[in-house]
Amino acid sequence: MTAPRRPTLHDVAREVGVSAKTVSRVLNGDGPTSAHTRAKVLAAVERLGFQPNLMARNIRTGGPDTTIGLIVPDMGNPFFGTVGGGIEDTVRGRGLTLLLGSSAEDPDRERALIATFLARRVSALMVVPTTGSVHAHLRVARGSGLPVVFLDRPGTGLAADCVVSSNRLGARDGTAHLIAGGHRRIAFIGDRPTTLYTRRERLAGYRAALEAAGLPYDRSLVVDGHTQAEAAETTVRLLRLPDPPTALLAANNFAAMGTVLGLARTGRRDIALVAFDDLPLAEVLEPPLTAVTQDPAAIGAAAAGLALARLDGDRSRARTVTVPTRLVLRGSGEQPPSRELVTS
Amino acid sequence: MTAPRRPTLHDVAREVGVSAKTVSRVLNGDGPTSAHTRAKVLAAVERLGFQPNLMARNIRTGGPDTTIGLIVPDMGNPFFGTVGGGIEDTVRGRGLTLLLGSSAEDPDRERALIATFLARRVSALMVVPTTGSVHAHLRVARGSGLPVVFLDRPGTGLAADCVVSSNRLGARDGTAHLIAGGHRRIAFIGDRPTTLYTRRERLAGYRAALEAAGLPYDRSLVVDGHTQAEAAETTVRLLRLPDPPTALLAANNFAAMGTVLGLARTGRRDIALVAFDDLPLAEVLEPPLTAVTQDPAAIGAAAAGLALARLDGDRSRARTVTVPTRLVLRGSGEQPPSRELVTS
DNA sequence: CTGAAAGCGCTAACAT
DNA sequence: ATGTTAGCGCTTTCAG
Fold it and tell me: CATH 3.40.718.10: does it fit domain B167-294+328-343?
C-alpha cells in the first residue's frame, strides 16, 4: 500500500491521448492549440489533480528559480517580519515566492543559508548581514547576474545594493529633541555587539547632536543593553550614578522596552526618554513614548524594487537607499531636567 | 558582455579531467573516491565557485524538495513569525528550508500559494487556514504522501494534522479569574469575522466560565474589535452602557492593545482586564496586564514534529495537538468591581 | 495545429 | 576507484 506517484505531464498526455508537448502548450499557452484538445487536456488536468513540477521546468528553461531568498536574524522580531511582508507584497505580482531563513546573528548559519539559497538558484538574495560575516564568496553568483541586496545593515566584502534606515540622522534628531528640552546629560543605551552597524550609526548621530550643541561626550553615559532585561538593569544602574543622566536615548526596540521597564521599576517619571524604533503601545505608556520610528515595510519594498530592477537588466553600480526615520513626539521626551532630583 | 553561466557539475569534471559522476560522488560522499581525486575535485569546486543545482538533484532523485511550505495570514505579526521560527528550528537539522507566503486572510491568495507550493513539491505544507478556505483540493497531494498540518486553526474539507492553542480552556480560565474577583458583568471583546475559529473557541470558553458560575450570558457584552483602533472605540462605548461591565476579556492581541488604549483614554483604572495573548510591555502597563499567554514557538515546533513524523512514515490517522495556554497574573485582573462607579 | 527527439543538471544502475 | 548509459519531468527545436 505505497502512496501513488504524483501525476506527471505524460500521465495527463496519456489520459487524453495526445503528446506531452501538447499538454505543455495548453498549460503554458504558447503554441496554438485547438479549442477541442485544450478542453480535454484541462479536464484531465483537473481530474488527475495534476500540478506541473516547477523544478523540472526551471531545470529545462535554465532560468533562475522564481524565489527570492531572504535571511533575517530573527523571524519573531516584527521588524524583520514586516520587512519580509514589504518584500513579498512587492514581488508577488512577478510570481516570486519568499524563501526565508534566520541566521540568529550567527555568521556560520548565515553562510549555510546563503549556500542553500544559491543551490536553489534563487532569483535574488536579500540579507540582513550578521556582524562578522563576509560576503566575498557571493562574487561568483553575483557575477553571473544574481541580484544581492543587503538590508538594514551594509554587507562586507561585496559591492551590492543596500537599504538602510536613516540611523544617524534619526538618532541625531532624537537627541537634539532632548537637548532642546534643556537636557545636558543624556545617556545612550545601545545594542551589542558595539560593532553592530545600527548601533555605531546611532551612536554617531547621538554624538553629532551633542557636538552641535556644544555638550561634552561622556563615555560613562554610553551603555549596553542587548536584551530587554539587560537594558532595564542598565537603566536602573544609570540612575544611581553620582551625576546621573536626566534623559535617555534608547537606541533599539529592546533597549526601548527595557528602559521603559527600568523607569517603571524605579518609579522615575522625571526622566526624559526617546526611543529608536517604535513600540506597539507607545501611546499608552506613562508618559507616552516619544520615538524615532522606522518604516520596515518601506525598507522591504525598496529592497525588492532594487532587486527587480536588477532582474530587469539594470547594470548600474551598487546603490544604497536610505529610508527616512520619523521623530514622533508623544510626551516622554518632554520631561524637563529637574535639578532638585539630581542626587550628588 | 553577457553574464557568465553558473558552473555545472560537468564544468568541474572537465576542469579536473574526471567524469561528472566522480564529482558527484565526491560531493555527496556516496561511492568510494581516492583521496587524490577528491582533493583535486574540491579544489576545482572552490576555484569555480560551483554550487550544485538542488532542483536538478531533486528532479533526478524523485524525492520531494527539501522545503517546507508555510502560509500565514500576516508575516508582520510576531505570533506567526515566532511560529515560523519554531518550525525552522525544528526542521533545520533535517536540512529543510522554509518557503513562506502570507495569505492576508484571503482564501484566493491562500489557494494560489498552496498551488505554488505544490508545484514546488514542498516536502510538507503548513497552513494557518483563512476563514472560508476549503482544502479539498489538497487531497491528491496528501494522497501521495504530502504531510499537511493546519496551524492555529483547523482546516476544512481535509483530514489533516492540526496544532492549536487551548483557546477554550484559556478563555475559560481567564474569565473564571475575573469571576473569582467578584465580577458579574464581564465583556468579551473579540475578533472578526465572528466565525473565526479562535474567536468562536474563546467565546465558548468565556460562556463556559459564566455558566459554571451561574452568571447570565448577556449578548450586549459581546462585541467586536478587529483592529486596535476599533477595539479601543468599542471599549469606550462599552463603558458608557447603562449597565456597563466591570471587567473585560480581550480575546486577541489587537483587542488587548485596543482595550488597554481605550481604558487609558477614559482614565478608568477600576476596570479589570484579562487579555488573551500577551503583550510585550505587559508588566509595565498600569496596572500590569494579566494575560492568557500562548506559546507560538511550541506551536511551530509541534507542527514541525508532526510533519517530520509523517515524513518518517507515520501513517496513523490525523491528530490534533493542543498547546496549553497559561494564565499569567500581573494585576489588571484583580481590580475589584466597584459598585459606586457603576452609573445607572 | 500537433508530435518526436534532444537535452537542462544531476544521479541510479550498471558497467569496468 | 572511476566511467557510461539512461532517465527524472519538463521544454526547446525542428518536423510534419
Answer: no
